[in-house]
Design a protein that fits this description.
Helix content is 38%, strand content 19%. The chain contains twelve helices and eight strands.
Amino acid sequence: MRGYTCDMAIRRGYFDGPTGQIHYRTTGEGGEPLVLLHQSPLSSTQFEAVLPALAAAGFHALALDMPGFGMSDAAPESATLDDYASIIPAAFAAFGWTHAHLVGHHTGAVVGAVYAAAQPQAVDKLVLNGFPLLSQAERDHFATFYFGPKQPVADGSHFLTAWQNRLRSTPGWSDIALMHRYTVEALHRGATNWKAFPLVIGTDLTTVLQKLSVPTLLFTNTGEDLYDSTRRTRELRPDFFAYAELQGGSHDIIDEQPRNWVREVERFLRA
């Protein structure tokens, strides 16, 4: 991996997309185009720990806040996964790209897969980091979490509910400062940053996966809540999907093991 330089600083900005203004973080201008899509209910902050290393590896890394997340405008009430994916070609247009690698985590993995299945000519390689091909029991389990509009109450107990939800939804968590940061971020756009989640658990993702034709890596870690689901996804097309896993961690693996995460992503994209 190359050394860091001053031009690898993370910069932020906006571009216009079909759902409104889209906020982004980017670094590594002039490198290979690489779009990163985050999990629910977070934002492009999820990739801050790895953006400089991706730039050092020669990528122009562009992490997007999906509609209704972070600082991006919300999608319309009737939004579909295609609406969420529509920000990808808008990003291409804003940066003058015709194609790029896509890396998505959880919800971002689904959005990336939806786009790659529909527009394979625009995707060089695809990384699906934790894919929610869920059983009914898993759907029922995830439906118990606090994914919905955050309604403030006078005694402030909604803050505690959000905190407890974050801990319960992160098996193996170990960084209390990270839990605080992500709880606050979830509350920040709590009226809209849950809306993609029902689409993810309610969509026929098997059909999406069967349509994929671009080189695709299924990437997971043994401590995350979608570990079994990602391995199940691999079994759907074992001769098509590449596969990599890291040991331990939680679904915050990007913050927990940034060097290991970048190593596996770079290894696949450059293979």
